[in-house]
């Protein structure tokens, strides 16, 4: 069967092209060809509809493996859907990385302004540098801690609070302007830096880019901290020489205002000229300072530092910095000895290296200053004696309730005593308590009766025995009695000690002045001294000063030893007014005469202790007699050995007439 002729245009038109197929249909394509196309042709893809609010997980139609020819659409490619609309919101995945916000690391910003002028970097400069570092490294300063006018030679600073914050895990680390702001103490840097890094914290410097997580970074940081410690030591040595030069001129080590004085500075701002630095007593505040010492050393009604601070603050007096007086500031001021015309100097051989800046170091001595004193030397000695007495007295015994509070001791254990309470019932059946009925051994009571044999005696008989002793000492004719050799030695050791002390003081001042001249001459003409000559000369003067200080300490005990004649007037006056004193006044008076009141157990003829209160002996140890409880100091010399106080030490260095040399074996 012959095929029906088809026009050329129909044969050349691709069957799958939609536009050409429609054109062929309109032009009259045969029905069998149109039917055959519908059977073999692939389904036509639908036009993409607008996306719904909930996007589809997969396209509705998957194209087959058939490839399109030239000029035809490739149905194997994924369908191109229009962008999904989410009602104006943008998901995190569609935000560019530039605009994504990262979580900032929290740090503590620490600022320290040094006390040295060459190290005074303003807090604003340090704060700006730390903020710039935080901006560059994606950090955030959550808290600022400032130490203004504070040295870095110790860690008694607010930096310890920053370390505690990091240890609690609140912040990641500590940011400083430089590593030297953290500290200049080698031991303190190592210890506190280990505390920070042991819990994962960091110490970063805003101006010193060091990666401390690497070995070379830790080495660099260690070198920076070591150099900071070296700078601190170098500057400290320079300041030490300056302080020594000022003390040689009779001035305090640091020039600043002193309470009770008018300070004339080296530079006079009024005349714009240099003048001699000096301290003059203030005409109004000076008498107030003297009254403080008199109130503290009052014989019957002494006042403590708390009462003195209240008196000063209520009177409108303030410290040189304009703050209120406290017990710490007043105690340190009065203990310094500046109102007595003295300079308190720390011992150079002390191992604390000047780090006890609160005045608690006991290694110091006093030197005469160039300023005029506000109190005399006798009042200063009374103040020091009162301070020693208060320090050796328990706090509960300072405010006396009974006449012998803080004085009674037990002879067997040499410990203190406490009071017992007597309890009974009256006729009505009520319980009556009598506090302070009797004395008992404190060590036996604290150990459950096992540490000491104990002692017990009523309080009233002990007080009567002390009163009898006082009246015997103040009896008429006691002053005219011939002194014994034991009470009054033939040679006045106190006079000799006073002369020796004056001689040693003059030698010390001479060595101090010579050392000052040597230092000044070496600073002006260093070419005059060969290598090592200046150091040898300086060490010679320093050793001479140390020897003189040791000899002065030996003379102090002899000079302060009291005599019986020093207490004659005091004993007579106390005995005359004894009945008019109240309990606290009697206690204060007795402490000026007596070291202690000793309770000991009496023994019978057979050597057995007498039980009860009748077998207790009361003994008084006065201040003018050698302390029987003090350890005996043995003096040894080439010609003998003796107990200190019985012989003069000079006798041990004098060959006696009966001395015979024993030949060696």
* Helix residue percentage: 25-40%
* Structure summary, number of beta strands: 18
Low-confidence stretches: 480-489, 643-649, 658-665
Mean pLDDT: 79
Silhouette: extended
The first-to-last residue Cα distance is: 163 Å
- What is the total number of structural domains? 5
Q: What is the helix tally?
A: 19
- Over the alpha carbons, how many angstroms does the gyration radius reach? 48 Å
* Main pleated-sheet profile: 4 strands, parallel
Helix/strand structural class: alpha/beta
| Strand content range | 5-15%
Strand order of the largest sheet: 2-1-3-4
Outline the structure in words:
- The chain is of the alpha/beta class.
- The protein has five domains: 8-36, no CATH class; 101-236, Rossmann fold (3-Layer(aba) Sandwich); 261-392, Alpha-Beta Complex (Hect, E3 ligase catalytic domain fold); 464-481 and 489-629, no CATH class; 631-665, no CATH class.
- Helix content is 37%, strand content 14%.
- It has helices spanning 8-12, 18-27, 31-40, 123-136, 159-167, 179-182, 186-198, 215-248, 286-296, 305-314, 327-335, 377-391, 395-398, 442-446, 459-473, 493-524, 533-559, 568-576, 583-591, and strands at 105-112, 139-147, 173-176, 202-205, 261-264, 267-268, 273-274, 278-281, 342-346, 364-368, 408-410, 417-425, 431-441, 456-458, 594-601, 616-622, 634-637, 640-643.
- The strands form seven sheets. It has a four-stranded parallel β-sheet with strand order 2-1-3-4, sandwiched between helices. It has a three-stranded mixed β-sheet with strand order 11-15-16, with helices on one face. It has a three-stranded antiparallel β-sheet with strand order 12-13-14.
- α8 packs across α16 (493-524).
- The longest helix has 34 residues, at 215-248.
- The radius of gyration is 48 Å and the shape is extended.
- The N and C termini lie far apart (163 Å).
- Residues 480-489, 643-649 and 658-665 have low confidence and may be disordered.
